[in-house]
Amino acid sequence: MTRFHRMVLRLLPGPFLGWLATLMFLLLMQFLIRYLPDLVGKGLPLGVVLELIVYNLAYMVVLAVPMSVLIATLMTFGRLAETKAYAVIKGAGVSFPQLVWPVLVAGLVVAGAMWHFNNVILPEANFR
Fold first, then answer.
1. What angle do CA 7, 10, 12 make, to 5 degrees?
2. Whole-angstrom Cα distance, residue 106 to residue 62?
3. Alpha-carbon span 35 to 32, nearest angstrom
4. What number of H helices and E strands is found in the chain?
5. Any idea what DSSP says for residue 95?
6. 43-94 pLDDT, tens digit each
């Protein structure tokens, strides 16, 4: 793994986590706007309402993670192009496919984690 690969992999987590938090917040607000009026008027205990929110967070993760990966990848390579780092990397003889493979591997790791999440954790959360 070259210095350029490490640089690209260091740039990915910041935008990923930022966009994951932003998208989770937006999806949570959408859930609360949709269901909170029905839940508040029924006299349900706070614990039941919080449990419903926690179980629905699993569905929100399924929607937010792929979008976060996409946006983080676009922002990372956009930042490389903006700071002229991509031109320096090209000048050093590293081709675009060589530069992208660590991002693809990281994407495959996230895809594998999401596959496990979708097949193990999400059905259990939906069942409850």
1. 115
2. 17
3. 5
4. 6, 0
5. -
6. 888 888 888 888 889 999 999 999 999 999 999 999 988 988 888 888 888 8
Amino acid at 109: V
The 10s digit of each residue's pLDDT in 3-45 is: 888 888 899 999 999 999 999 999 999 999 998 888 877 788 8
What residues contact residue 12 under an 8 Å CB cut-off, 6+ apart? 72, 73, 76, 103, 106
Q: What share of the chain is helix, strand, coil (3-state, %, to 5)?
A: 90, 0, 10
Exposed e or buried b per residue across 93-123, where buried means at least 16 C-beta atoms within 10 angstroms of its C-beta: ebeeeebeebbeebbeebeeebeeeeeeebe
- Block residue for tokens 């929100």: 60
Residue type, 96: F
Nearest to 32 by CA among 53, 46, 48, 51: 53
Tell me the pTM. 0.85
- Looking at residue 26, its pLDDT comes to 97
Amino acid in the structure at residue 46: L
